[in-house]
Amino acid sequence: MPVPTEDSALLAAFEARIAAGESIEPKDWMPDRYRKQLTRMMSQHAHSEVVGMLPEGNWITRAPSLRRKLSLIAKVQDEAGHGLYIYCGTETLGVDRHELVEQLLDGRAKYSSIFNYPTLAWADMGVIGWLVDGAAIVNQTVLAKASYGPYARAMVRICKEENFHKRQGYEICTVLANGTPAQKAMLQESVNRFWWPALMMFGPSDTNSPNSAELLKWRVKRKTNDELRQRFVNLTVPQAIALGITLPDPDLRFNETTGDWDIGEIDWSEFHAVLKGNGPCNHERMAARRKAHDDGAWVRAAATAHAQKQQARKDTAAA
Ligand code: 3HC
After folding, report:
1. Using an 8 Å Cβ cutoff, are 216 and 143 in contact?
2. Is the four-CA dihedral 58, 64, 68, 73 of positive or negative sign?
3. How far is the CA of 225 from the centre of ligand 1 (A)?
4. Going by CA atoms, what residue is nearest to atom 22 of ligand 1?
5. What is the mean pLDDT of residues 22-28?
6. 210 CB less than 6 Å from ligand 1?
7. CB within 8 A of 113, min separation 6: which ones?
8. Each residue of 233-274: pLDDT tens digit?
9. Whose CA is closest to atom 8 on ligand 1?
């Protein structure tokens, strides 16, 4: 019988807290793997929010009305805030946000594959709000019950804003669906492009998800990738029917036995190609992100100089 080490006693106590549904806070003891997994997941979530501004930012100057422009600007600004908010949450794990950003910029870190697809028509703004933010809401309302306190609490605030994102998107889709034949055709073409990539936001199938088991054991994830994907499909198909839009899946059918909408096979080769950097817009998105980072160097330098001057004043006053 191995002699329990201090760490194994700490691990046992940690796992008892998780099993009891307690919230783990930054100053609490946690296994290195728990910290590592959260840093990975939260930083990639933050990267996704920031990169996610690019596809929609592309249409701010081309919105069809002042009202649509205001709504799109508000949404894109929200996404920036979500990114910064989650970076703050990640920093409670003892990592430096600048290192996280470097990991994104040099290609070591991932961001959600969905943002590597182009936004070719105004309808894409509606479809992104409806499908992409709709998928995010399904994922993030469950993450609001995650065992790591700062992450769960961040999700509560972010989900409130995601609901506005989805509603404004679905309203755009409703107007187009009830508009001219050309507008409805533009909406259908946009859904054809975004439906399958939106399903890929939930990650690989459960049998191919190397991180899920650990994240579920430690109640960071509360549902599996496939369970959340299915929940999203069940919510979204009736919305598509209400719009009079056909989802691009010939195998989609309602399963009377399970009460679920069964979908066809996802093209995982496309998913892995995009993750490897070979999606339609990977290079464009990273080039834009690197340029924005370089263009912002003077702001970071000024903020650092100001902080150092403030600290020097405090040190002098304290001496
Ligand atoms: N895009 C890019 N990478 C993905 C991915 C996707 N759609 N789905 C999975 N991956 C990556 C994972 O990061 C992991 O790679 P890594 O080990 O190198 O990090 C690998 O594929 C295997 O996937 P797993 O299922 O094992 O990984 P996870 O258990 O981390 O599950 C996840 C993936 C479901 C995305 C999970 O990380 C998660 O829920 N993250 C938090 C939410 C999030 O990041 N959402 C991104 C959408 S952006 C958004 O919501 C913005 C909104 O405003 C629209």
Report:
1. no
2. positive
3. 9
4. 209
5. 98
6. yes
7. 197, 200, 201, 271, 274, 275, 279
8. 999 999 999 999 999 999 999 999 999 999 999 999 999 999
9. 203
